[in-house]
Amino acid sequence: DECSGIMYVAKLKITFPCDNPITYETFCECVGDWAVCMNPGGPGEGCENSTGAGGALTASGTYTNTTLNADNLPLPGTIGLFFVGNTPIGPFHLGDGLRCVGGDPVRIGIVSTNTGHAHLPIGPSQPGELYQFWYRDNWGPCNAGFNLTNGIEIQ
């Protein structure tokens, strides 16, 4: 999309991308036989963790000012890593969850939380980018010590 710019005194018309709300699709939901140890999550979630739900990754904001949000994280606190890639893989079992983001993944932020929610402002995002959140879960159902959320693809 393009939005009309403004008319300057020099009579130049400027066009620029709209700062539309971010849209994404969820993938890598932990359902059915994909669950590592009979620990499926709910719709839009990774595999079940020690909270009884799966970690859920979403995005909010706009394409030029995107924030990643991970919810349903273990309490009393956890540390985790947001990462981005450009190729869907697997899903492959990893810890208590599934890894589905590949294509030269890059770590983009480590966060610590005591609230069950983690947020990371990442600035601009592009269609085709894939995100996932890897987090510590010392009391998870499969006893691996860590888990992953679902993945999201920016549209």
- The number of strands is 13
N→C terminal distance: 13 Å
**Mean pLDDT reading:** 90
Give the fraction of residues assigned to helices: under 10%
User: H/E order of the elements?
Assistant: EEEEEEEEEEEEE
Quaternary assembly: single chain
Q: Beta-strand level of the residues, as a percent range?
A: over 45%
The number of helical segments is 0
Class derived from helix and strand content: mainly beta
Q: Major beta sheet, specifics?
A: 6 strands, antiparallel
* Broad shape: globular
Radius of gyration: 18 Å
Low-confidence stretches: 4-9
What does this structure look like?
The radius of gyration is 18 Å and the shape is globular. Residues 4-9 have low confidence and may be disordered. Strands 3, 6, 9, 11, 12 and 13 form a 6-stranded antiparallel sheet that branches. Strands 4-5-10 form a 3-stranded antiparallel sheet, with no helix packed on it. A two-stranded antiparallel sheet has the order 1-2. Helix content is 0%, strand content 52%. A hairpin with a 2-residue loop joins β7 (87-94) and β8. By secondary structure, it is mainly β. It has no helices and 13 strands.
